[in-house]
Amino acid sequence: MLKPLQLEDTAPWKVRFRIPRIYNTQIAIKDSTRGLVPCNKSGLFQLYAWNVATGSLTQLTNRSDGTLLGKISPDGRFVYYLNDQSGKEIGHLFRVPFEGDEPEDITPDMPPYQCFDYVQSLSNNFFGFIAADSQGFHLYCIDLRLNGAPGTRRLVYSSKNIIMGLCLSYNGNNAIFASTERSGKWGQFNLVAIDTATGQTIAELEDGPNTSIEPCFFSRCANDYRVIVTTNKSGVRKPFIWNVHTSGRHDLHIGDLENDIEVLDWSLDGNKILLCQYSQAIQRLYVYDLVTDRLIRLNHPNGTFTGTCFAADQQIITEWQDAANCPQVIALDSRTGKKTQNLLSLGEVPPSRPWKSITYTSSDGQEIQGWLCTPDSNGPFPTILEVHGGPTMVVSEAYHRGCQACVDHGFAFLSINYRGSTTFGKDFQNKILADIGHWELEDMIAAHHWLIEQGIAKANQVIITGGSYGGYLTLLAMGKEPDLWAGGIAQAAIADWRMKMVDAGEISRKADIALFGVSPEENPALYDRCSPITYAANVKKPILILQGRNDTRTPARQIEVYEERLKSLGKSIEVYWYEAGHLSSFGQTEHAIRLQEIMFRFAYQVLSEKKGN
User: pLDDT (tens digit, 9 = 90+) per residue, 542-555?
Assistant: First the structure.
């Protein structure tokens, strides 16, 4: 039974939304007294310089659309970010001093570009970045003068295929990145190492057909050209060390550890590596001692860790959260994993319901993991089934404001890691390639059946929702399985893949081609088969779409056409437009509350028409 809609400002769900959020906190590699904190304490995300010792935050950006993503230089002197316009993720790289000052455009003479990969060398004499435009992907290098000022910029490498994951050696004379030039497929990368002075390729590495090698870090030591990378040749991601000059390879002795292993950091002395093992989307941290080739399990708190790194005084600093605690920065003992200190927390949250990890079986026998949260009462409940974006990401236990708001109102909430999600192995992740939407939808249908069988959900009161790729899956499910869902709520969605490809930014377009395995010109029928607009006539239940006008990943025009198509067919569809890009609305407090209210009103209206409420 749904509770009355809570719209008063004192409602617990609104209090949760108004507690300032932090996201992707970072510590300067060579100065752990300095950090970078993206935070929405002003009402939208901006970048803040963080004095770790005092806990003070100094605002560095004041952009009208907010700034979510940035990087602090290894010495902590500068913070870099992409200065785009209206959230379009196309612009120029800027930097600002840690102490605060006027931002500086470091590529003032270049036309606007997309860029998510940029890094400064640990010697602080070199800066590299990968820019994408209509001609492809380009690696540029900039020499930094003794005073840190940018010097000459050089184009050192170009490719029509995706290159990403840029790493620089200590002094910046070598760079390494992942490339799809050989495979042409998403999730199947080889490595390329180049001399940044000449642009000459000095080494390449692949690990066999249908595998992926991805770079993590160069050694933090001068004149050390070892790189720690991961390979999924065994079926799951495992780390090893590769020397780009000698081609020597050292596999880490990780014993019987199963599932994907992520590399989080490499110590400044080069002797220790920080690892994270994923088991059914649950994280477990380890330290690997390279001197003794010994793996040490850390006894840390349960929950999810991001931005995790070694720091001074035998500490590990990490941004931690779980279902009941919002993100906060804590310190762990690097020898034991024991929590030693709270470093940064921006508010106490109202009581929240815990998440439970569940598994169920999909149509082909594959086990699917998800996170369930239910009210403190007996079911069955009206239920929200959430599908994440990506698709190459994973949902771990998190402080999910939307989930808690739903549970406050009497909904059960299930978020699933469908096929295509990361950390469940190569076959699981790559199952969707060239068959977009098929297995994801099978896993969503199986989740619906499981919810009913377990007595958690009412059969006619399951609402499907998701953002970005999850928004795509929401619209696809509403057209291909119209009888299962009470309604669909999609944010930043994809309705027509071919139209999206025309309007999207270059990085998004190349990623889509890699997912499909062919371009829309080569196989238009495949793109149409995978597009929700193809199944518009089948839609039976109401749809709500929340969409940004300035989005370059899921552009506006294809949603306008989808809305027009459904209305012409007499279908129930509502589109709420807002002036933002794909990420620029993230963390805008009052905007997020407004969207949640709109979603609640839609859900209540849909469910009021169902019997048994």
Answer: 999 999 998 889 99
Q: DSSP 3-state assignment of 476?
A: helix
Q: Give the integer Cα–Cα distance in Å for 218 and 606.
A: 53
Average the pLDDT over 408-414 and give the result.
Answer: 97
The DSSP code sequence of 52-74 is: TTT--EEE----TT-----EE-T
C-alpha distance from residue 563 to each of 126, 198, 523 (Å) = 48, 51, 25
CB of 265 within 8 A of CB of 274?
yes
Question: CA-CA distance, 243 to 237, in Å (whole number)?
Answer: 19
Instruction: Kindly state the DSSP code that residue 426 receives in the 8-state scheme.
Output: H
Rounded Cα distance between 520 and 158, Å, is 23
For range 462-474, the mean pLDDT: 96
Query: Which residues face 1 on adjacent strands?
Result: none
- Are the beta carbons of 322 and 403 closer than 8 angstroms? no
**E strand segments, 106-162:** 114-120, 126-133, 136-144, 150-159
Spatial contact of 493 and 553, defined as CB atoms under 8 Å apart:
no
Strands 213-218 and 201-205: unpaired
Output the pTM of the full model: 0.93
**Residues 19-71: tens digit of each pLDDT:** 999 999 999 999 999 999 999 999 999 999 999 999 999 999 999 889 999 99
Nearest to 76 by CA among 311, 271, 305: 311
* 519 φ/ψ angles, rounded to the nearest 5 degrees: -80, 160
State the residue for tokens 């190492």: 193
Q: Which of 554, 553, 501 lies closest to 524, judged by CA?
A: 501
Distance in angstroms (rounded) separating the CA atoms of residues 258 and 236 = 8
Beta strands in 232-324 (DSSP E): 238-243, 249-251, 261-266, 272-279, 282-289, 294-297, 304-311, 315-322
Q: Phi and psi of 359, rounded to 5°?
A: -135, 150
Candidates 479, 578, 434, 590; CA nearest to 464 is 479
User: Please, which pLDDT band fits residue 612 given cuts at 50, 70 and 90?
Assistant: very low
In this predicted structure, the answer to whether residue 611 has a pLDDT above a threshold of 60 is no
CA–chain centroid gap for 188, Å, is 18
98 Cα distance to chain centroid: 26
Report d(CA 441, CA 447) in Å as an integer. 10
Domains of the chain: residue spans and CATH = 280-349 (no CATH), 376-393+401-414+457-608 (3.40.50.1820)
Largest Cα–Cα distance in the chain?
72
User: Tell me, what amino acid is at 613?
Assistant: N
Overall average pLDDT of the 191-198 stretch: 94
Residue 320, SS3 per DSSP: strand
The position carrying tokens 């920080």 is: 274
